Amino acid sequence: MAAVVVLLLALLFSGGLYAVFAPTSKAEADETAQSLTIEEGKKLYAVGCASCHGTGGQGTSDGPSLVGVGAASVDFQVGTGRMPAATSQGPQVPKKKNIYSQAEIDQLAAYIASLGAGPAIPTKEQYGPAGADIAEGGELFRTNCAQCHNFTGKGGALTHGKYAPDLEGVSPKHIYEAMQTGPQNMPSFPDTTLSEENKKDIIAYLDAVNSSKSESPGGLELGGLGPVSEGLFGWIFGLGGLIAVAVWVAARTAKAKKS
């Protein structure tokens, strides 16, 4: 009996030690890994970003402050190749091939996030199609986004040489992040304005309209190129038709007077 009691006490003691020390060890390991990620991100930042945004992300005359922009903004701007920006700046920074791997982007995002709280990188559950309402997404998109991006996300021109980009082929994660952070000319749509479900519905709607190979249910869509093509059509044919009618009426009136 004494041997059994000793064995039970030993098991209880070892189990207690594990319960006390194991969670702490795991937390310390996670904290160490996060610290290493931030440190690597800081090195990447010093090489590729500090010249415009300042050594501590405080911003300069060549680039805005990054304190508080969050990891989602970094993942969007760097993941779409908009950052680092080209040396010759235009009215707005265009999308281009990115120069960082996803691991490096995650490191940069972790470092910027450490400078101040901001929107986090969304998970697949947040922007994935599961449970999304496409019809609701269409209503939300037409209400909040179509004024710039066109009804099917084909993009369109803005003032002073700026433009709303075409959303076809843009990854769901980057669309979600754009709504979170409001890059460049776009307003931000935090969860207080558009909830996570709203954002998911909009992404599902864009995926549906851009992946559809059927004809437009509304008839001729002028290539879906946005308000510029529609305005040009109205200007040439609409105004041109009015001028032609005015000339015809004037000619008939002049002829009637001569008679």
TrEMBL record:
User: Topology in the membrane?
Assistant: Multi-pass membrane protein
Class of the enzyme per the UniProt entry, highest EC level: translocase
Q: Which residues cross the membrane?
A: 232-251
Catalytic activity, as annotated: a quinol + 2 Fe(III)-[cytochrome c](out) = a quinone + 2 Fe(II)-[cytochrome c](out) + 2 H(+)(out)
Instruction: Tell me if Mitochondrion is a UniProt keyword of this record.
Output: no
User: PROSITE patterns attached here?
Assistant: CYTC
Q: Which residues belong to the signal peptide in this entry?
A: 1-19
> Pfam family example for this protein?
Cytochrome_CBB3
Sorted alphabetically, which keywords does the UniProt record give?
Cell membrane, Electron transport, Heme, Iron, Membrane, Metal-binding, Repeat, Respiratory chain, Signal, Translocase, Transmembrane, Transmembrane helix, Transport
Q: Where in the numbering of this chain does the Cytochrome c domain appear?
A: 36-116, 132-210
Q: Where does the protein end up?
A: Cell membrane
Q: Which E.C. number(s) belong to this protein?
A: 7.1.1.8
Where is it predominantly found?
membrane
The record ties this protein, via InterPro entries, to: bc1_cytC-su (IPR009152), Cyt_c-like_dom (IPR009056), Cyt_c-like_dom_sf (IPR036909), Cytochrome_c_Oxidase_Subunit (IPR050597)
Subunit and partners: The cytochrome bc1 complex is composed of a cytochrome b (QcrB), the Rieske iron-sulfur protein (QcrA) and a diheme cytochrome c (QcrC) subunit.
| PANTHER family for the chain | CBB3-TYPE CYTOCHROME C OXIDASE SUBUNIT FIXP (PTHR33751), CYTOCHROME BC1 COMPLEX CYTOCHROME C SUBUNIT (PTHR33751:SF13)
- State the protein's name: Cytochrome bc1 complex cytochrome c subunit
- Record the organism: Streptomyces djakartensis
The taxonomic lineage of its organism, from the top, reads:
Bacteria, Bacillati, Actinomycetota, Actinomycetes, Kitasatosporales
